[in-house]
Design goal:
Elements lengths: L4 H6 L4 H28 L2 H17 L3 H16 L5 H25 L1
Helix pairs in contact: 2-3, 2-5, 3-4, 4-5
């Protein structure tokens, strides 16, 4: 679910740099999902799309490709006006993110 290959290469496997980037992700991702939940509740589709878009590169950086794919689906659904599937996609993304955060916390403890 989490593949830190890119991060390892980017940081030249420097544990301090890796810790910093992982910690940053662990700080930002939950806040972004909280905001996305508010967007969903308010029917603010465009802001939901923007938040999903902003989280994609971070998910990619952490090697969470399944999350990136779900975020892309959210963006596409909003662009096409398929709002009836957005909540399901959001929930799937949230599960992936939550599981990934647990894995990243474990990795952080091993660095």
């Amino acid at each position: 679910m989490v593949d830190l290959s890119f991060l390892k290469k980017f940081t030249k496997e420097d544990p301090q740099k890796m810790k910093r980037y992982i910690s940053l992700y662990l700080d930002v991702a939950p806040k972004t999902f909280e905001e996305m939940q508010r967007n969903l509740n308010d029917g603010d589709w465009e802001q939901l799309r923007i938040n999903a878009h902003s989280l994609k590169p971070q998910a990619d950086f952490m090697g969470i490709s399944s999350l990136k794919e779900e975020l892309i689906k959210i963006e596409e659904a909003v662009k096409l006006g398929n709002y009836d599937v957005v909540e399901k996609l959001f929930n799937a993304s949230l599960v992936i993110s939550t599981n990934s955060e647990e894995a990243l916390r474990e990795m952080l403890g091993q660095l």
